[in-house]
Amino acid sequence: MQARIENPAELLPDAVKAINLLYKAAHSAGVPSSTLELVHLRASQINGCGPCVDSGARAARKNGETDERLFAIAVWRETPYFTDAERSALALAEAATRLADRSDAVPDDVWNEAAKHFDDSGLAAIVLWIATTNLFNRINVTTRQQAPQNW
C-alpha cells in the first residue's frame, strides 16, 4: 500500500508546531512517560495505525519497556504485567478511543478508577495524550502512511 500524500503535518509546518506543543503539554504533568507510551501504543493498536504502533513500540523499548509488556499490551486485562495505575490509564485510553462503541462512551467506573491513580493534571495529560494519539492515528490511517522499513 502506498501513502496517498505526504504526511499532512509535514505539508503544513504550523501543524508540526501545534502537535509538538500538545506533546510537550501532555508529557509535562508528571504522568510517567512509560504510562503515556502504553496509552499511545494501545490506542494506536485499536485504530490500526501501523506507523504509530511501530514507533510507539520502538520508543517504549528504547526507554526500557520489556518485551513481555509490549507483547501483551493488546491483552493487558489478561496478564499480570501492568500496575493498577497503568491498567486504569489503558482502560481510559480504550474507552476514549472507541467513543462510538457504547452510549456511555467513557463510563464513570473507568473514569473513577483512573482518578484513584492520577490527580486532575495527570488525568488531563492522559486525556490530552489519548486525543493527540487519535489525531496521529487518524492522519496516518486516512493518508495510508506506512511504518518505516529501515530503522
From TrEMBL:
Keyword Transcription regulation: no
Keywords: Oxidoreductase, Peroxidase
Signal peptide residues on this chain, from the entry's feature table: none
GO MF annotations in UniProt: peroxiredoxin activity
SUPFAM superfamilies: AhpD-like
Domain Carboxymuconolactone decarboxylase-like per the UniProt entry, residue ranges: 13-95
PANTHER family: 4-CARBOXYMUCONOLACTONE DECARBOXYLASE FAMILY PROTEIN (AFU_ORTHOLOGUE AFUA_6G11590) (PTHR34846), BLL7811 PROTEIN (PTHR34846:SF7)
Protein's recorded name: Alkylhydroperoxidase AhpD family core domain-containing protein
Organismal lineage: Bacteria, Bacillati, Actinomycetota, Actinomycetes, Micromonosporales
